[in-house]
Structures are given as C-alpha cells and as structure tokens.
Specification:
The chain has 235 residues and is mainly β. The protein is 2% helix and 37% strand. It is built from one helix and 15 strands, in the order E-E-E-E-E-H-E-E-E-E-E-E-E-E-E-E. Strand 7 (108-116) and strand 8 (123-130) form a beta hairpin. The radius of gyration is 17 Å and the shape is globular.
C-alpha cells in the first residue's frame, strides 16, 4: 500500500526532530534488526507516480564509469543492492556513519554520496562510488518512528544519463526543500521515501578489500510491500 508523507525531514544529519505526542503514530509496523538491508521505494504521492509505477521498486546501481555509479531502480529479482551502515553505535547516533555496499572483484566498499547538481540550489544526485561514502546519509533513528533513508526528501527522476548517450533512466535524487515543499520537485521526478528492508549481509570471501568489522545492526522491515500501511498514522 501507498504510505503518504505528512511531515518532511529537511535533514537528520545534525539531530533528529522533536516529535510531539499528536505527531507520533499510535502504532508502528513491526521491525527486525539486521546488518544488511535493501532500499524499497515508497511513493509518497501516487498522483505523481510514473506509468509503469515505481512504487515498491528496489534500489540498484547504474554503472557510469570506473568506480562510479548512480543509484537507480529495479525489480526485486533484478539483484538489488544490499547495503550496510558502517560505523560504531556513536557514529550512527551522531550521523557520522556511512552507507556502503560491497561490489567488484575482489569485493570493495562502495559508498553513497549526494553530489549537488550543477545550476541547482536544491537538487543532488545520489551516487554509489568506490570508497567510504559520505557522512550525513543513513537510516533514521530513535525519535523518528519509521526506518528510511535520510536526509529527505528523495525522489526518483526520469532523466537522461550522458554515459549512455542520452538513454533515460530512473535516477535517485535528493532535494533540500524550503517553504515550497514538494512543489519544488520538478515534474519529471516522483517524491519517495526509501524504506529499509532486512537482507542478509553475506560473509566476505578471502581477499576482500571490504570489512564488516563495523557493520552496524539497524532496524529494518522484513517485507516493506507486505505492510498494511493504512493501519498506521502518516508521518
């Protein structure tokens, strides 16, 4: 089911917002804990969804060069990326951890970064590049009642990718919105939340450059698509 967003988070990098009693959901869907997770697209305004729909698609990578990729969308059976939070409990609490995925041969850490779009004050493109990734990107925690990727607001945008000679892809972007809210998100983009779905973090084979020493166990959902969202208050 579609889960509409009522309150947006400009950023959780510095601190989690204070939630008043009236804003707190009366119940929240059950969570599990896992070191690994996949990201599932939840369209927050179905009137803006694409056709075919991107609702409940999974986040994967779009190769755009040596050690470089964009975050895009794909099907569950299309080998979605498995991510993990890299950092200590204090790193996670104070938004100093990073979001990684193990790719390549030998397995190497690739981290999520948000790269500001040229000519825009509000739009950034989500990249997954070889390396440690950027701090200030992670999964929501404590006072936030649901588990999704921050900083908000994310959107899936239908746009051309120069590496593929103008071929169109569904690309993940992040918008730092002001008073205009989601109206500032262009028409070729669909505002979304990226919910964490539990996934097994596989053991690393011998010779890997990645390390799971500081893979942090976080909350996640066993099956995002199976949650009966109307039972829970929007947030």
């Amino acid at each position: 089911m579609h889960f509409p967003a009522i309150l947006g988070l400009a950023s959780l990098a510095a601190a989690s917002p204070i939630v008043s009693a009236r804003d707190t959901p009366v119940a929240t869907p059950p969570t599990s804990r896992s070191q690994g997770f996949q990201l599932v697209v939840n369209v927050t305004d179905l009137t803006r969804d694409f056709s075919p729909s991107i609702h409940q698609k999974y986040i994967n990578g779009i190769h755009v060069g040596a050690g470089q990729s964009l975050l895009g969308t794909g099907d569950r059976d299309g080998h979605p990326l498995t991510f993990y939070i890299n950092g200590t409990a204090l790193d996670f609490h104070f938004a100093r951890s990073t979001v990684l995925s193990d790719l390549g041969t030998p397995l190497t850490p690739w981290g999520i970064r948000l790269i500001k779009d040229k000519g825009s004050d509000v739009a950034s493109t989500a990249q997954l590049n070889a390396g440690p990734g950027a701090e200030g990107i992670g999964l929501t925690r404590w006072s936030v009642p649901y588990t999704f990727l921050y900083p908000e607001t994310y959107a899936i945008c239908n746009e051309t990718v120069p590496y593929y000679a103008g071929r169109r892809f569904m690309v993940v972007k992040q918008f730092s919105l002001g008073v205009e809210g989601q109206e500032a998100i262009p028409a070729n983009c669909v505002p979304v939340r990226l919910f964490a779905q539990c996934a097994k973090l596989e053991d690393l084979p011998k010779g890997s450059l990645s390390s799971h020493e500081f893979a942090y166990e976080t909350e996640c959902y066993e099956d995002v698509a199976g949650i009966d969202w109307p039972k829970y208050r929007p947030w």
